[in-house]
Structure formats: C-alpha cells, structure tokens
Design a protein that fits this description.
- The complex is a heterodimer of chains A (about 140) and B (about 140).
- Chain A has about 140 residues and is an all-alpha fold.
- Chain A has one domain.
- In chain A, helix 3 crosses helix 4 and helix 6 packs across helix 7.
- The longest helix of chain A is centred in the N-terminal third of the chain and has 23 residues.
- Chain B is an all-alpha fold and about 140 residues long.
- Chain B has one domain.
- Classes of the chains: A mainly alpha (about 140), B mainly alpha (about 140).
- Chains A and B meet through helix 2, helix 3, helix 4, helix 5 and helix 6 of A and helix 1, helix 2, helix 3, helix 4 and helix 5 of B.
C-alpha cells in the first residue's frame, strides 16, 4: 500500500485510466454496449425500464460514496460559484446529448475505435474547454 | 431470471470499476481538470495520462471483443456512422464550455455527487435537466 502511496501522480492517472478502459471493455463484452456516461444517463432517463443503465450509474455513485471512507480527498469541489456550476451542468447536459457523447463515449471508446466523428467531437470540446478556461481563468 | 441478475450485477461492477478509475486518476477533482485545460497558464498534463491509459487498454480489448457476441446476447452496439454534422460539432462545443467552466464532465460529476460534494450534486441536477432538453431539441 505504501508503495502505491508514493507513486507519481502520472502513474495514478495511467492506472486509473487503465481501470476505466477495463470497465468499458467489460461493458462491451458483457452487454455489447459502449461505456459513454452521457449516453447511459440519457438512456436511463428515456428508457428507465432497461435497468442495466441504472445499475451502471449506481456503480458510479457507490464508487463516490465509498471514497468518503477510503479516500476522502479524492473528490474535490468545483472552484467556481454554485450559479456558474449550475449553468455548466445545463450546458454539459444539452451539449453531450446533441453531440452524442462526452469524454468517455467519444474521448475513450471513440478514439480507441479511431472513429472520425469522435475525433472531431474531442477536438471540438477540447478547443472550447481550453478557450473557456482562457477567458474565465483558472482559479 | 439469472440472466437478468447477471446483467445488473455486471453493469454495477462496470460502473463501480469505472468510478474507482475516475477517483484514482483524480478526474473527480475539478481544479485538476481545469488545470489540464489551462494550456496557456500553468498546464497540468496529468489527465493526458488518464486518456492514454483508458484508450490504450480499450483499444487492445477491442481486438479481442470485436466480432464476438456479447455474453448476455444481442449484438455489439453500432455507433453512429458517417462524417461530421452540425449537432455533433455544436453539441461538443457547448459541452466543452460547460466542462471548462466547472471542471466536471458527466462521469466524474456523478461519482463526486455520490460522495455528497455539493457542487457536484448541483451540477448533476442541472445536467439531467440539460440532457432532457437536449433530447427534445434533438428530436425536432
């Protein structure tokens, strides 16, 4: 445990990313579904009877819940004010629904598949994300 | 019945492992995400390693999974094909603005909301409203 504790942040990132890749691969192998969180969220709202989506989302929530015991500093608050965060949530909801994906669906699964559409999506949201931080400023 | 239980248990496991990956890789810290997008300031490249790890593993797994029938039956989901269109670019542009504003994208926001973080709870609430609104816009 101590050895893991002393790892470079980039190794944590790489390891965490690998876990995300494993989970996405398992969902594709078991359910045949692409692990795009925005898509799963939208599907859960529109077709709530297909319970696997709800189960996936409950898994995400349980990970967050367990972090309060195991790693209380793993989750941080957004440095922006609550009204700004509320507006951001609205934009992310509308944008991912129209764009057909977010950082997981387009960013991980799409790029790994070498999808042209996903590459365009990723370049677009990276560009506007960088531009937004440039304008609003980093805290 | 057993297939139904297997489906839910596997989906829950996928969500849990996905969430642990997000926590471990510090994607659930919005200031880290904003630092990654702050390319003209004090750029923090950490999150590029998350993408590298996730894309690397998933791309390798795809070679094994592609052309196989899913364990629970049915077919592999076929993503939208074709080149780019206006909703793809406009939607992704809007998403990027919200991402840069808050430092949250959907997955990490839901994990953070699970921990009870107030900013994440507000974010997820309005994100769900936005998802419904986006769905209505999309259908027209």
């Amino acid at each position: 445990m101590l050895a893991i504790y002393e790892m470079h942040p980039w190794l944590y990132a790489l390891l965490g990313g690998a876990l995300i890749g494993c989970a996405s691969a398992l969902l594709l192998r078991s359910h045949g579904r692409i692990a795009g969180v925005s898509g799963i969220c939208g599907g859960a709202l529109e077709r709530p009877t297909e319970l696997w989506r709800v189960a996936f989302l409950v898994g995400l929530v349980l990970a967050g819940l367990s972090s309060t015991v195991v790693a209380p500093h793993a989750v941080g608050a957004s440095p922006r004010s609550l009204p700004l965060v509320a507006i951001a949530g609205l934009l992310v909801g509308v944008g991912t629904r129209l764009g057909g994906g977010c950082t997981s669906g387009h960013g991980v699964c799409g790029i790994a598949r070498r999808s042209g559409r996903s590459l365009i999506a990723v370049m677009t949201f990276m560009f506007t994300g960088v531009l937004t931080v440039l304008i609003v400023g980093a805290p | 019945m057993t297939k139904r239980v297997a489906s839910l248990a596997l989906a829950l496991l996928c969500g849990l492992v996905f969430g642990i990956g997000l926590l471990l890789s510090t994607m659930t810290q919005p200031s880290k995400v904003i630092g990654f997008l702050d390319v003209t300031g004090r750029w923090d490249p950490t999150l590029a390693f998350v993408m590298a790890g996730a894309v690397g593993v998933y791309a390798l797994a795809l070679r094994w999974i592609a052309q196989r029938t899913p364990w629970l039956g049915g077919e592999l989901q076929r993503p939208a094909r074709g080149d780019f269109d206006i909703p793809l670019v406009a939607g992704s542009a809007i998403f990027g603005i919200g991402w840069g504003l808050s430092g949250f994208c959907p997955g990490p926001a839901i994990v953070a909301a699970g921990s009870g973080a107030p900013t994440a709870l507000v974010f997820v609430a309005t994100m769900l409203v936005g998802t419904v609104v986006g769905g209505l816009l999309d259908r027209r």
